[in-house]
């Protein structure tokens, strides 16, 4: 009985510790801003306190611009991310299962992968006729490479003995792909999807700061140019919540599909 009760209490204790850690960070932030703390290499003189940020957040929640900013960012992220999922998983399976596809596709992908999202922005503006398409392309680029590499890793690490056993039992290539390769590679694919979602938000914010008119990244950059420092932190928190929620949704869905 004691073991069962203790096991049931562990999740609540962990959530309590997590909540207290957030509260402690907010308290330290409040003290540093109120005291205008300056440590030489970092200063809180111009950093707004949490109370001021909360007021700005309430104003944004009541503003009709919130839906416009969030809606624009969500559309750009999921449009680019959806295209990256389709191409990334397809490329990953082709590279992981075919030596010819690996020789053909992997070298250019490895060449392009280290290029940061900011470096793609001028070229995307030249390629696409609208800034909207260029921002979607930036989110696509950000999500593509983590999805491809994690899919390749999952497919390439499938136990060859399972594939050989399935072939000896008369399994067709389609059945082997559906019954062995896909379930075996699923954990790596879900990991790549979660990482890709995070990089999509990172790349989107970068793109919106440069060529956007609506969106959370544009809202954050506009607050900086107007010196509304509390709004900067509000925008950062909204971005963090949207990114965390998207990644949590993908991870939860992945665990549900992989019992």
Automatic annotation (TrEMBL):
Xref: Pfam families: BPD_transp_1
PANTHER family: ABC TRANSPORTER PERMEASE PROTEIN MJ0413-RELATED, ALKANE SULFONATE ABC TRANSPORTER-RELATED, MEMBRANE SUBUNIT
Membrane topology: Multi-pass membrane protein
An individual GO BP term: alkanesulfonate transmembrane transport
Function: Probably part of an ABC transporter complex. Probably responsible for the translocation of the substrate across the membrane.
Domain ABC transmembrane type-1: 70-250
Transmembrane keyword on record: yes
Annotated protein name in UniProt: NitT/TauT family transport system permease protein
Gene3D superfamilies noted in UniProt: MetI-like
Subcellular localization, as worded in the UniProt entry: Cell membrane
Family membership: Belongs to the binding-protein-dependent transport system permease family.
Superkingdom as given in the UniProt entry: Bacteria
PROSITE patterns: ABC_TM1
Membrane-spanning intervals of the chain: 12-32, 74-96, 108-128, 134-152, 233-257
Tagged with keyword Transport: yes
Alphabetical UniProt keywords: Cell membrane, Membrane, Transmembrane, Transmembrane helix, Transport
Species this chain originates from: Bradyrhizobium macuxiense
GO cellular component: plasma membrane
